[in-house]
Design goal:
This protein is α/β, with parallel strands linked by helices. It has one domain: von Willebrand factor, type A domain (Rossmann fold, 3-Layer(aba) Sandwich). Helices cover 34% and strands 16% of the residues. Helix 1 runs antiparallel to helix 2, helix 1 packs across helix 7 and helix 4 runs parallel beside helix 5. The longest helix is centred in the first third of the chain and has 19 residues. It is globular, with a radius of gyration of 18 Å. The mean pLDDT is 81.
Length: 240
């Protein structure tokens, strides 16, 4: 979520239906964490498969309330080996300056990078304020680079459904996710996300980047046939 007043009108319903979706769609090996953004990034629950705890976390996050526990490290057990524990010291440092929304996304990417494999981030939100300015676009680029480096696909859901919102579109497209904003019910985009992730291909190639180098390499994936639609990450980070 983002700290836009319009969100508070829609988020309780979105949270309720997100919980309903989890109850219906959560698979035995799925792990879910809940975070929100108001004046900064708030971790409401670390990764878990506990539906009851996820329901409580979604309820507090969608209603704009603080996490059930002030300290994320005490909010309940995380799934073994699948955790955002690296973020906890920063989140528990109440003296740390608040980040803006895009900086928080970059921070979240850093925390997710420690978890192996492909991850999906479902983001309920609205367009980034002042998107189109150089500062906002640079911050968006940094967030996308961080999320791509962590192998995170972002699925953005336009909460207010007020038409195309460019920053949400960019976040999804450039991380290999999808931007969803035309729907009657929040369950519709959530079920589409489930369908899109029911199967995917893992492609690899030999990089020609020097071993001692470091940077970001954009990648484009396409098919020989126009019958198929490709969704892929926009690139990867290499080196130190």
């Amino acid at each position: 979520t983002t700290a836009d007043n319009r969100l508070y009108l829609h988020m309780p319903r979105a949270g309720k239906q997100a919980y309903q979706w989890l109850m219906q769609e959560l698979l035995p090996n799925d792990h879910v964490a809940v975070a929100a953004y108001d004046s900064g990034l708030r971790l409401h629950h670390d990764f878990t498969r506990d539906r009851h705890r996820l329901g409580l976390a979604l309820r507090s996050a969608s209603r704009g309330k603080p996490p059930e526990s002030r300290w994320p490290s005490r909010s309940g057990p995380a799934s073994p080996g699948v955790t955002l524990a690296s973020l906890v010291p920063k989140l528990e440092d109440v003296s740390a300056p608040s980040e803006d929304f895009l900086e928080s996304l970059a921070t979240l990417g850093e925390g997710l990078a420690a978890i192996p494999g492909r991850k999906n981030l479902v983001l309920f939100g609205v367009d980034v304020p002042e998107y189109g300015s150089r500062k906002a676009e640079e911050a968006l680029d940094a967030a996308i680079e961080s999320l791509n480096a962590a192998n995170v696909a972002v699925y953005t859901i336009g909460v207010t459904r007020r038409g195309h919102q460019e920053s949400l579109d960019q976040l999804a497209e450039r991380t290999g996710g999808d931007y969803l904003f035309r729907f009657q019910d929040f369950l519709d985009p959530l079920r589409r996300i489930s369908r899109l992730n029911s199967g995917f291909y893992l492609l690899s190639f030999k990089s020609e980047q020097p071993a001692a180098g470091a940077g970001y390499r954009p990648v484009s994936v396409r098919t020989a046939s126009d019958e198929f639609e490709v969704r892929s990450r926009g690139g990867y980070r290499y080196g130190g």
